[in-house]
Amino acid sequence: MSFFRTFVCIFAMAFVSACATLPQPGDVNVPTPLMNNSGTFMSPYTQDGVVAPWVDKAVNVKLGTTIGSTAGALIGQQIMGQIPIVGGILGEKLGREAARMIALEAIGGEEYIKSTSDMSFNSVPDLIVYVYATHSTHPSYQDVFSAVSDIYPDMKQQYMPALMAAAKNKK
Prior knowledge:
The structure is a single chain. This protein has two domains: 1-51 and 117-142 and 157-171, no CATH class; 53-115, no CATH class. The termini are far apart. It is built from eight helices and two strands; from the N terminus they run αβααααβααα. The chain is mostly helical. Helices cover 67% and strands 2% of the residues. The radius of gyration is 18 Å and the shape is globular.
C-alpha cells in the first residue's frame, strides 16, 4: 500500500473513531463488580454510590500527575534526542508511569486505595463500563474519571472500545 493510501486509511479511521457517539448509559451491558477490594482495579465509587475517599484525594493531587507527565516527556526527549518518534513514545510511557507513581504516592499508595474501596474489578474495561453506566450523569464524573485514569492510565485508551463493546454485547 502506498504512503498516501496508508495516510488516508489512518486519517479515515481516526475520523470515524472521533465521530463515533457513545452509547447511552442504559444501552450497555453492565458488568457486575466484586463487592470487595479483591480485584485488580478499585472502583472510584463505593457501594452506596459516593466517591471513594482515595478518589477525593486523587482529584486534589491532579496537578502532580501533570508535572510527572511533563517530566517523563522531557526525560524521553533527552534520552532519545535525535529520534523524535521513539523519544516521544518513550517519553509518553515514562510520563504516564511517573504520573501514576506521583498520584499513588500523593494519595497514600495502593494500600490506601484498597482500604477505602468496597468494590473492584478484574479488568479496566469492566471498570470503565460499570462507572459509565452507573455514574456518568453525576456532575463530578469527568473529574472522577480524570483522577482515576491517572491511577489506571489504560482507562483513557480503552474508554471508547470498552463502551462500544458493552453496547454491542447488550443487543
